[in-house]
Amino acid sequence: MAQRFDPVTVADRETEDALRGEIMRCYPDHGIAGEERPTLKPEARFQWVIDPIDGTKAFVCGLPTWSTLVGLCDRSKPVLGAMSQPFVGEYYLGGPGFAERVDTHGRSILATSETTQLNHASLFATSPDMFNPEGELACFGALSKKVQLTRFGLDSYAYCQLAAGFIDIVAEAGLGFYDIAALVPIVEHSGGIITTWDGSPVRQGGTVLAAANESLHEQALSVLRDSKD
């Protein structure tokens, strides 16, 4: 299989450097893990996980579906998350007791959809080529056949739109922890469920399944598990 195009821009590096500088100034005892630079203080209890430009391919194509992701983990558990899309002026935030979208109109509370039947659900992923053709692609295909609508694109926006109630399921693979750490609290505190494809808590990259509620998540998880056998 041909190697996927994975661009890195000057903006990626400079954004991460700026974020690291502010975090180190405010929280000198915390660790930092980012996509573009070496991990700082990996032994620290609190770790900031940075993806300076999530969706770099969208960024270089001039599409507004890229974002900056910043998450805070407590002993590898994501507890706070922020997604920023400064071009369109949208920010999604999640943590204990809150999940909200902030834009020029103010703040709005995030809440996932009430869809509970798989055949009424929408399914998103960034791209078909993110799935390993030896197994993951077949599992995603099986899930796609069970839902009402499958679409690709959006990168981290898909998880935020799930948190806002517009999308029902996101299933992806090949993620780094920096791709997902900030999104876990946003999804969870808006009422959604997010795990790996085997149902484990998200504590690193790999496969991720996010759903609007427990019922929908269990149905999607069952399809992915059965398709693996």
Verbal overview:
There is one protein chain. The chain is α+β, with helices and mostly antiparallel strands and 229 residues long. The chain has two domains: 10-109, Fructose-1,6-Bisphosphatase, subunit A, domain 1 (Fructose-1,6-Bisphosphatase, Chain A, domain 1, 2-Layer Sandwich), CATH 3.30.540; 118-228, D-Maltodextrin-Binding Protein, domain 2. 28% of the residues lie in helices and 31% in strands. It is built from seven helices and twelve strands. It has helices at 10-26, 56-60, 136-146, 157-163, 177-180, 183-188, 214-228; strands at residues 31-34, 46-54, 67-74, 77-85, 90-95, 98-103, 106-109, 122-125, 149-152, 169-175, 193-195, 206-211. Strands 1-2-3-4-5-6-7 form a seven-stranded mixed beta sheet. A five-stranded mixed beta sheet has the order 9-8-10-12-11, sandwiched between helices. β5 and β6 form a beta hairpin. α3 (136-146) packs across α7 (214-228). The radius of gyration is 17 Å and the shape is globular. The chain starts with 9 loop residues before the first helix and ends with a helix.
Please sum up the structure shown.
This protein is 28% helix and 31% strand. The chain contains 7 helices and 12 strands. The chain is globular.
